[in-house]
Structures are given as C-alpha cells and as structure tokens.
Amino acid sequence: MSDITSNPYYKTFKTLQDNQYAIGNTTYKQRIAKLNRLKKAIEVTYRDQIKAALHKDLHKPGVEADMTEIYQIIGDIKYVKRHLRSWMKLQRVETPITLLGSSSYIKYEPKGVCLIIS
User: Fold this and answer.
1) Is the distance from CB of 54 to CB of 73 less than 8 angstroms?
2) Cβ contact 50:65 at 8 Å
3) What is the pLDDT of residue 1?
4) How far apart are CA 54 and CA 56, in angstroms?
5) Model pTM?
6) Pairing of strands 91-93, 104-106
C-alpha cells in the first residue's frame, strides 16, 4: 500500500486546501482581477492549446471548440463578473425577538475544496 503523499495529485490538492480560507477572504477587486486573468488565459494565452487538446481527444473542429467550449466559458466569466458584487453582499434576514437589539444576516462563504480529475 502506498502513502497518500506519493499520489501525484496530493500536492495540488493540499495547496488548494491550505489556501481555501485566504481565497474565500479575497475582495471584490481581487476576484475581478482573477477572473480577468482567467479570461485572458482562455481567450489568448492557451486558446490554441485548448483547441488542439479538444481536437486530439474529441475530434472537435476549431470552430466547434470555440463555440461550445471557449465562448461558453467566456460567457460564464462575464456573467459572474456582472453578478459578483451582489453575491458578495451580506443578505439581511429577520432577527428573532429573543435577540432584540442585534442584527442578523447571511454571509455566503466557500465550504471546502474539490479536486476534479477527468
């Protein structure tokens, strides 16, 4: 039986796990900057490599890869950028009478780390 640390994905997962709280505490501007970097990486830096991989693995022509994969993700990034500020706001909720004098709200936070391998 091998040790878990010998797994090639362990280091990646451990890094994500160690940084989950720092990532969850990023500001709106930091998140927008990350989304912009991701968008640029997909649209410019790695576009040809993504299309080549899709052609090699799934035999997708370049135009189809653009339409079904690249533009779809770019659209999702634009959607997230438009809604991010409202998603990050505290959501006020009714305070029970037993807690009179205080305020109640919901703050959405990341719950954990997931490593998807496909």
Assistant:
1) no
2) yes
3) 55
4) 5
5) 0.75
6) antiparallel
